[in-house]
């Protein structure tokens, strides 16, 4: 490989804040809201052009799972109120778990303004400032140029854990045994669906018999590999359905090459999937593509090493951990097939029989080796199988709240996040 030597230059410190949150997906939203509401000067940095991450720019269909997140409950209540205030007959099927991405973008923006969170969109975190083992800032790149944001505490809610990786926190990429990662997806919407006749298979294990055959089997046979499953979800608009049917395997979402390949592969599947829907799925005979997500859905990349690690046994056999910072977390083992379409052999959706919720201890949010930094969302310290459960957005938002509270307590007291007592966080996230 050939190299070019870039001229050394001083980077301006454009901002100096109490708490810096990197990534404005559900985890980042929870973190920034909590930190700001505790009185911290808080900045939220996001690479996309809107808040919400996969819930908005990624065009996610619905909120899945459950958790103790108070911010999530507030978003649900305010989203429902928005639809009621519109009072327009064109809005239907309004249930609190169904996401209207455009409405949610505006709501999240308004909530951040109310909390006085400083927002910086179209901005990529591209380095970490680490001094004597403690992160003191993040290097950013945007249209303004390259600069530094200094912070008393940093929350990495970037999904892939870019800041933690730049800071030198050890991690495992993908599955422990072979480092393979769950496939990626580009969500899209079709219109022109007859809701009176339409079917909405919501899981890989949902079979739908039709005159032409069972839908999941037909998809596996007829759609271009590695696509080959049918996941269709109601929206808030008449005749519009959100589709989770594109699929791309063997993609590393931590590289530009991987993201590009995944996006282009998924885009190439859109036309044949729409043709399949028209031909084989009841109620979709006259459907047509109206939009696809601007953000590729990356399910799994880095699993960082924390002071504690959440495992699948902690979920299958939940126990009370006095150091909890997230409670009432619940979902299934949503492992998409790492080698093709549908559910992986290790995954459990309908077959997930564990009915009790679990908690996440504070140590899973505290990275090894680097102080002043909090992990948040799907990048916390957890095993591959446990990750398939806690990566769900409702749980990530609760993790975000805990990390935001911890960062705020650290910034306000001058203590290290490692010296914050879990009981302090518990008290605030429970209020």
Describe the structure.
It is a single chain. With 431 residues, the chain is of the alpha/beta class. The protein has two domains: 295 residues, 3-Layer(bba) Sandwich (FAD/NAD(P)-binding domain); 105 residues. It is 29% helix and 19% strand. It contains ten helices and 17 strands. Strands 1, 2, 3, 4, 5, 6 and 17 form a seven-stranded mixed β-sheet that branches. A four-stranded antiparallel β-sheet has the order 11-12-8-13, covered by helices on one side. A two-stranded antiparallel sheet has the order 7-14. Helix 1 links the parallel strand 1 and strand 2. Helix 1 packs parallel to helix 3, helix 1 packs parallel to helix 9 and helix 2 packs across helix 3. The longest helix has 25 residues. The radius of gyration is 21 Å and the shape is globular. About 2% of the residues have low confidence.
Instruction: State the secondary-structure class.
Output: alpha/beta
Sequence of secondary-structure elements = EHEHHEEEEHEEEEHEEHEEHEEEHHH
The residue fraction in helices comes out at: 25-40%
The main sheet comes to: 7 strands, mixed
Number of helices: 10
Number of strands: 17
In total, the number of domains comes to 2
- Remind me, CATH topology of the largest domain? FAD/NAD(P)-binding domain
The CATH top-level class label of the largest domain? Alpha Beta
Broad shape: globular
CATH superfamily membership of the largest domain: FAD/NAD(P)-binding domain
- Give the N-terminus to C-terminus distance in angstroms: 55 Å
What is the average per-residue confidence, as pLDDT, rounded to a whole number?
95
- β-strand amount: 15-25%
Q: Mind telling me which CATH architecture of the largest domain this is? A: 3-Layer(bba) Sandwich
Low-confidence stretches: 87-93
